[in-house]
Write a structure and sequence with these properties.
Layout lengths: L1 H38 L18 H13 L7 H6 L3 H12 L17
Helix pairs in contact: 1-4, 2-4
Amino acid sequence: MRESMTVAAAALAAGLAIPAHSQDSHYARSLAATCFTCHGTDGRSVGGIPPSLAGQDKSYLVQQMKDFKSGKRSATIMHQHAKGYTDEQIELIATYFSGLKAGAGEGAPAARGGY
């Protein structure tokens, strides 16, 4: 009886972990979406300026954001964005971008000459 309760508790815990992980990935993407305006859809910038974030090393991204947040690295706007995130949110954003495949972004349809 005790063994079956342990198995049932483990199964329940595993079942609860899946939706939480799914929610974290959606939450991470929603946080990262604020970066899309400048850094391109899914962090793939057009022309490399500003730099693409997709496929970057997670620890590099975290360090850059912390440097912007602390003022150690100067910027026109990034220090303001970085100050709006907790360290945990910065970790989630960095995890999201580091998990994406690197590559160049495409311009908007109008910039490509059509819709």
